[in-house]
């Protein structure tokens, strides 16, 4: 680092221009293989102690991004930095990395081994990382207490003996057992009932403060994200179309897709119902991507420039709006007006 | 008030399982006027889907014990013969589901499926039935219906499949539509389109609808009236506005405050402690009492009945005074 540079707080986790393309074979023998652009040029910074929300609809690449961050799959291009440093792509390097970055999945029962008791599931990770059994058990019981499950009652039970909400608490305890710095939640509360969802969200807020954690929270539920996240990235067909602080985006969304997504939230007041759907049609498949802006075919403000060129964007800025209308020199007739 | 289209009296559904009897629905009473939309909200295990299946007559008879009465348009549904029942299902009453992929047959085109349904319920020729199928696909706003009619379900996107299923359900002109979380699996921008479509069709075709959902927002968008279910019972019912704006049952209140809608970041959400009861071992008296902040010993004495509270709101809670405030 050059001495003239300001000392910056390293982001807890940083993604730099991540790319991932999958190849799918056509349905008929002999038909050409096609490419799915699951994640295209995704960059973000997760600041220590904060929660980054990731929202988007099916096929937008949220879950592929989570798997890239966890190094479960390799990116075609781009980097993931933990505390400012690259991850060693060796067995030992990845093992050390995964100790720091843990994940909680949507399906609480599929992610627990049905043949292991709750205690065995929680100490599994620590044992692999060389913690001795006695202290791993003591830790496990403490974690169970922290997630609101009385260890004397629950440590010896099997996953099928618990409710969905309790199982998700166990998954949270297990993710925390290696004392990670970062926890990624992939739709972790989506399958829970509303009253249980609220209990789990309260628990996450409490644990984050107590254990000095940073969260990445992937969800399709815009209400949940607004409640839990500090910063947000909005994805559409593999790209980040908008990013910024949650408050700014919810109060003043700038990308037409973000606007449409927020306006699609059902009203909770029967006297003020929604009268018109903000956009029509389904999210297109990420297999045959449109030319130019990927949102243009559904965008109410699309013009010739939108289908001709992909919008420019600042690749590392905290506030990204990938739209010709946000770029004063793009040539869009409304350029520079929305702010 | 005119005679209701649907009248349900003391409906009880029990399932016999190896682990004992599950009390899924425990004495439900409701009335539905022609053209009215009733939203049923509740959490998993509250009995909302089982109620719908009982109304459609599709619960497996060997494992199920049903008592009470379901009257649709003056006929007792529970005493229909097998032949009458197969006309009733899909004819007078149709149902749409959360997962269109499982409700549609993957080996037939959507056109074949709608045509078959229409012919089974009375249309004369195949050509007429196919014309009806096309009309239905247009009605549910499937773009380019003329070519889509020969698509198989897997060739359609999620939102289009949901529309095709709605077209199939409405093709026979049912008096009552049962909707079981039909928008839950859809993306946000597609969900609102399907809600608006259902609302429009329901109004145009004048059919009564029971719409089951766990999402308060979805219920607010579509319902005239709302019933809140807990542990197989209706604990509160009234107009959508009354129930959502002035909830009077402690469970409704808890359900509404425990949603994160409008909660501020960092603040603890007020939520209902504990979990819904085990339906194989229902608690004595009010099923919500073990989780209720207002419960007293009296609450466990008897199951509270729905009582009128306010102009058009009914609440099953003894800690509820006639003026609508909770007893202190």
What can you see in these coordinates?
The complex is a heterodimer of chains A (339) and B (328). By secondary structure, chain A is of the alpha/beta class. Chain A starts with 12 loop residues before the first strand and ends in an 18-residue tail after the last strand. Chain A has helices spanning 62-69, 91-100, 118-128, 133-146, 151-154, 164-176, 194-211, 222-228, 246-251, 256-263, 304-308, and strands at 13-24, 34-46, 51-55, 77-82, 85-86, 101-104, 182-186, 214-219, 231-236, 239-245, 320-321. Helix content of chain A is 31%, strand content 20%. The mean pLDDT of chain A is 89. Chain A has a domain at 112-179. Helix content of chain B is 31%, strand content 23%. Chain B has 11 helices and 12 strands. The radius of gyration of chain B is 21 Å and the shape is globular. The interface between A and B is large, with 47 and 46 residues.
Give the oligomeric state. Answer: heterodimer
Regions with little confidence, pLDDT below 50 for 5+ residues of chain B = none
Give the N-terminus to C-terminus distance of chain B in angstroms.
Answer: 36 Å
Q: Give the class of chain A from helix and strand content and strand pairing.
A: alpha/beta
Give the radius of gyration of chain A: 22 Å
Percent in strands of chain B: 15-25%
Helix content of chain A: 25-40%
List its salient traits:
A: about 350 residues; seven-stranded mixed beta sheet; 11 strands; globular; B: about 325 residues; alpha/beta; eight-stranded mixed beta sheet
List the helices and strands and how they pair.
The complex is a heterodimer of chains A (339) and B (328).
Chain A: E1 13-24, E2 34-46, E3 51-55, H1 62-69, E4 77-82, E5 85-86, H2 91-100, E6 101-104, H3 118-128, H4 133-146, H5 151-154, H6 164-176, E7 182-186, H7 194-211, E8 214-219, H8 222-228, E9 231-236, E10 239-245, H9 246-251, H10 256-263, H11 304-308, E11 320-321
Parallel strand pairs in A: 3-8, 3-9, 6-7, 7-8
Antiparallel strand pairs in A: 1-2, 1-4, 4-5, 9-10, 10-11
Helix pairs in contact in A: 3-4, 3-6, 4-6
Chain B: E1 6-17, E2 20-32, E3 37-41, H1 48-56, E4 64-72, E5 75-76, H2 82-88, E6 93-96, H3 100-103, H4 110-120, H5 126-139, H6 145-148, H7 158-170, E7 176-180, H8 188-205, E8 208-213, H9 216-222, E9 225-230, E10 233-239, H10 240-245, H11 250-257, E11 307-308, E12 313-315
Parallel strand pairs in B: 3-8, 3-9, 6-7, 7-8
Antiparallel strand pairs in B: 1-2, 1-4, 4-5, 9-10, 10-12, 11-12
């Amino acid at each position: 680092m050059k001495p003239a540079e300001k000392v910056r707080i390293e982001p807890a986790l940083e993604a730099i221009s991540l790319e991932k393309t999958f190849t799918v074979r056509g349905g008929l023998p002999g038909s050409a293989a096609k490419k799915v652009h699951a994640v295209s040029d995704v960059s973000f910074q997760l600041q220590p102690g904060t929660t980054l929300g990731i929202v988007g609809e099916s096929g937008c690449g949220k879950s592929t991004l989570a798997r890239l961050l966890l190094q479960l799959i390799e990116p075609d291009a781009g980097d993931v930095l933990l505390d400012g440093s690259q991850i060693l792509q060796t067995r030992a390097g990845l093992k050390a990395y995964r100790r720091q970055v843990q994940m909680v999945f949507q399906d609480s029962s599929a992610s627990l081994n049905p043949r292991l008791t709750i205690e065995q599931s929680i100490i599994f990770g620590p044992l692999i990382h060389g913690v001795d059994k006695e202290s791993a058990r003591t830790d496990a019981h403490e974690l169970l207490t922290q997630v609101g499950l009385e260890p004397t009652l629950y440590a010896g039970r099997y996953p099928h003996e618990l409710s969905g909400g309790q199982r998700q608490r166990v998954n949270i305890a297990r993710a925390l057992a290696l004392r990670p710095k970062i926890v990624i939640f992939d739709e972790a509360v989506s399958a829970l009932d509303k009253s249980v969802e609220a209990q789990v969200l309260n628990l996450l807020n409490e644990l984050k403060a107590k254990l000095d954690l940073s969260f990445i929270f992937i969800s399709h539920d815009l209400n949940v994200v607004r409640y839990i996240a500090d910063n947000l990235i909005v994805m559409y067909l593999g790209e980040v179309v908008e990013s910024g602080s949650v408050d700014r985006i919810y109060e003043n969304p700038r990308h037409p897709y973000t606007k449409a997504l927020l306006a699609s939230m059902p009203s909770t007041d029967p006297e003020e119902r929604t009268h018109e759907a903000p956009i029509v049609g389904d999210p297109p498949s990420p297999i045959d991507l449109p030319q130019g802006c990927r949102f243009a075919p559904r965008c109410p403000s699309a013009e010739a420039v939108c289908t001709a060129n992909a919008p420019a964007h600042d690749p590392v800025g905290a506030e990204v709006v990938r739209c010709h209308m946000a770029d004063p020199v793009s040539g869009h007739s409304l350029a520079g007006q929305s702010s | 008030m005119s005679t209701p289209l649907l009248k349900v009296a003391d409906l009880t559904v029990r399932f016999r399982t190896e682990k004992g009897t599950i009390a899924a629905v425990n004495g439900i009473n409701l009335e539905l006027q022609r053209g009215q939309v009733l939203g049923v909200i509740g959490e998993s295990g509250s009995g909302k889907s089982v109620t719908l299946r009982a109304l459609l007559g599709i619960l497996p008879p060997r494992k199920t014990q049903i008592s009470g009465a379901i009257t649709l348009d003056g006929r007792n549904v529970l005493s229909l013969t097998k032949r009458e029942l197969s006309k009733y299902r899909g004819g007078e009453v149709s149902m749409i589901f959360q997962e269109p992929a499982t409700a549609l047959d993957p080996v037939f085109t959507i056109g074949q499926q709608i045509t078959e349904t229409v012919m089974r319920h009375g249309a004369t020729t195949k050509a007429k039935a196919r014309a009806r199928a096309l009309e239905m696909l247009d009605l549910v706003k499937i773009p380019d219906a003329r070519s889509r009619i020969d698509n198989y379900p897997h060739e359609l996107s999620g939102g289009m499949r949901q529309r095709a299923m709605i077209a199939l359900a409405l093709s026979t002109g049912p008096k009552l539509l049962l909707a079981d979380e039909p928008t839950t699996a859809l993306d946000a921008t597609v969900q609102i389109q399907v809600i608006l479509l259902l609302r429009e069709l329901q109004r145009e075709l004048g059919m009564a609808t029971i719409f089951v959902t766990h999402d308060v927002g979805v219920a607010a968008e579509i319902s005239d009236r709302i019933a809140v279910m807990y542990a197989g019972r209706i604990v509160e019912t009234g107009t959508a506005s009354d129930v959502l704006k002035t909830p009077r049952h402690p469970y409704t209140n808890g359900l509404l405050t425990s949603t994160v809608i409008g909660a501020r970041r960092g603040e603890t959400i007020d939520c209902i402690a504990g979990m819904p009861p085990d339906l194989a071992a229902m608690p004595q008296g009010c099923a919500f009492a073990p989780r209720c902040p207002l419960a007293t010993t009296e609450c466990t004495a008897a199951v509270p009945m729905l009582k009128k509270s306010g102009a058009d709101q009914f609440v099953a809670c003894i800690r509820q005074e006639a003026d609508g405030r909770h007893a202190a």
